[in-house]
Amino acid sequence: MKHLSFILLLFSATATAVAQQEITRRVSSQEESRLYIKGYLDYGIAMPNSFKGIPDVNTNTLLKNSLKGWGQGLKVGLGAGYIINDFINFGLDIDYYLSPKISSEKSIANSESKAVFDAQIIALTPNITFKAIQNVDFYPYSRVGVTIGLPFGMTNTVDNTVLVGGKKNFIQSVYNYKSGPAFGYLAALGVRKSLTPGFKLFAEIQANNLTIQPKTASLTSYQENGTDQLSTLTVAQKEIQFTDNVSNSNNPNQATQQIKTPFLISRICIQFGLTFRF
């Protein structure tokens, strides 16, 4: 009888301990936030099909391409995510491209041209992360998303130097390009490693793609040998409209039409960052 009482007491104590552990686990799980934030930095290399310069506005001939394509260089960002379960997370990334200026040039006969393109991009990317295995300390993952780019500050500064009668004539033209939202995608493979219960370090190989379609270009500055001559130009000389079908009206009071030419950002990068789970 004593042995039976001892067995029942031991069984009761064990059952109580297991139940208490399960309750603690459930409470802890419920209290642990499913939200996390992250910050990251990457360096990308532009693919051969990336935008590398604007054709000469007057002759529509290509300048000598820049060695650097749009999208090359650094990209920084912040993001947030929500953990659906052990294998799927939803997230949103906000990126800022720190792309270098794109310089292209040409030289023919007695003239030289150099164009410097500059622009800024903020990109929003809703994305889904798929964990490959269930492991809280270390796991590989894949990530895909749809990117919405917001380009701004797109300018192209063109310097033309023409030798006439032994004298150099210098003309500088500054064009301001306008575009609507750009669309593209993100695809990545990465690994994530826990540093503390809240912090994780991650690294990933990422591919970015964005197609930007300018709508208009306006000549905002036109100087000849240091003298402002913008007011002497017609609307057709100062305004460009990009369209699918060009209609040459030769009307000096209407914008000049040119065929749409998309600016493509295509890059491969290595990204490093930290996530923090509340």
UniProtKB/TrEMBL annotation:
Cited Gene3D superfamilies: 2.40.160.20
InterPro entries per record: Beta-barrel_OMP (IPR027385), OMP/PagP_B-barrel (IPR011250)
Cross-referenced Pfam families: OMP_b-brl
Extent of the signal sequence: 1-19
Keywords from the named record: Signal
Domain Outer membrane protein beta-barrel residues, every copy: 7-217
Protein name (database record): Outer membrane beta-barrel protein
Taxonomic source organism: Emticicia soli
